[in-house]
Amino acid sequence: MPPVEPVLRHLEQDFDQAVERYLALLRIPSVSTDPAYKQETRRAGQTLSDELATLGFETSLRDTPGHPVVVAHHPGPGGAKSDNGGPHLLYYGHYDVQPPDPLDLWDSPPFQPVIVEANRGPRVVARGAVDDKGQVRTFMEAFRGWHAVHGTLPVKITVLLEGEEETGSPSLPPFLDKHREELSAPDVAIVTDTNSWDIDTPAVTYMLRGLVYVEVTLHGPSRDLHSGLYGGAVVNPINALTRVLAQLHDQNGRVQIPGFYDDVAEPAPEEAQAWRRLGFDEKAFLGEIGLACSTGEGGRSLLERIWARPTCDLNGIWGGYTGVGAKTVIAAKASAKLSCRLVAHQDPARIIEGIKRFLDCRTPPGCRWEIQAKDGSPGIRVATDSRFMEAVRAGLKDIYHRDAVLIGMGGSIPVVGWMQHQLGLDSILVGFGLDDDRIHSPNEKFELRCLRNGIMSHAAILGHMAALRAA
């Protein structure tokens, strides 16, 4: 196996140049949701595809109904005709970014990255600084280091970079189906779109919550009504809707949707004990968003509630007149958006059916429901005892000089579920962001220390992956 030590030394010497390549990528305004940026989004994908080609990958920029997907393959040591016996890894990331609005809240233009000195050292401020261009740069630079020192990569690698993650990845599931034979060949996927535990402690995410999103409308009278002529005599859909929605949770914070908890597993005792040992600072977590206390399902710790318990939240509610001044109207309808975060083993389709049952049995007389639901994505839990996981944790320890902690994540990364169900690939989620990186917000940032740790960690992980061929 080619040694990793000279690769790490090269990466240290090349870090300033790596930062320049990173800044150049950030200058491309690849906002996937805005058609005005279509060509710029494509340019970002082409830039990464071209770079992978210089590192020995066979690359292509493949069109979809939306933005293109970068697919690249590297044969590993010995070339395409060799069988090096090592694992085949798939690296996933995305090159699109969220819109930068509101622009007036940025301290500097969002697509003109700046390096700012802060309490942890220099950081880069720009849209996409961490999500996901900074994270993508970590493994791209690790590839570059291996290629520069040894002329090849130590294992066989496939790279999949999409340009629609920030719009829900509508083109990706059919793309995975179309290219299933090609993309299911790897042994495991490495996803770098998550966080470290803190700036000094690496983390591997092994639990992700899934998502169901529903829009409901309660229809009442055939038209808007004068509240003086009809008030007190007919159903008011806004009043009725809020009464129904107020029943979503009981007094202990448990969701009242039928069957909601049927498939929810309790954390194992050793798992809960490991979470307690993390030393989570709940006061600091809440204080950063201006709160002093948490709420939610009773009898559960905050980490348990956001990692291992499902939720149901209202995300918007409207009806009637909401403009300036008064309009005494009884609206013909009222609407709300709600989402459920799901944990492993919960079936999104069953949860949607439960929501419909919850609403149907509470339909006010004379009213009817209109329900629009997306299929959603399931919660994910990955094995923590695989040889691939051991290689990742060993590589992280080489760089951080401490063990990586195993954590959950309250949000969703749908591609992890799609790769699991469509390609048969489990994922290892190892990222280098921090909780205060302001993802999707103005002044998004990435600490250069985190960028360096990510680059070095991926290089070390590749070394440990290559060692598996002897196992």
What's the structural blueprint in terms of helices and strands?
Layout: H1 5-13, H2 15-26, H3 38-54, E1 58-62, E2 69-74, E3 88-94, E4 114-118, E5 121-125, H4 133-150, E6 156-162, H5 172-178, H6 180-183, E7 188-191, E8 203-208, E9 210-219, E10 225-226, H7 227-230, H8 237-245, H9 269-277, H10 282-287, H11 302-307, E11 311-319, E12 329-330, E13 333-342, H12 348-360, E14 368-373, E15 380-381, H13 387-400, E16 405-409, H14 414-423, E17 427-430, E18 445-447, H15 448-467
Parallel strand pairs: 3-6, 3-7, 7-17, 8-16
Antiparallel strand pairs: 1-2, 2-6, 4-5, 5-18, 8-15, 8-17, 9-13, 9-14, 10-12, 11-13
Helix pairs in contact: 1-4, 1-15, 2-4, 4-15, 5-14, 13-15
Describe the structure.
The chain is an alpha+beta fold and 471 residues long. Helix content is 34%, strand content 21%. α1 packs across α4 (133-150) and α2 crosses α4 (133-150). The protein is globular.
Short description:
The chain has 471 residues and is an alpha+beta fold.
Structural class by helix and strand composition: alpha+beta
Global mean pLDDT: 95
Number of helices: 15
Low-confidence regions: none
Tell me how many strands there are: 18
The portion of residues assigned to helices is 25-40%
Radius of gyration: 25 Å
In terms of DSSP E residues, the strand content is 15-25%
Note the gap between the termini.
13 Å
Biggest pleated sheet: 9 strands, mixed
Give the overall shape. globular
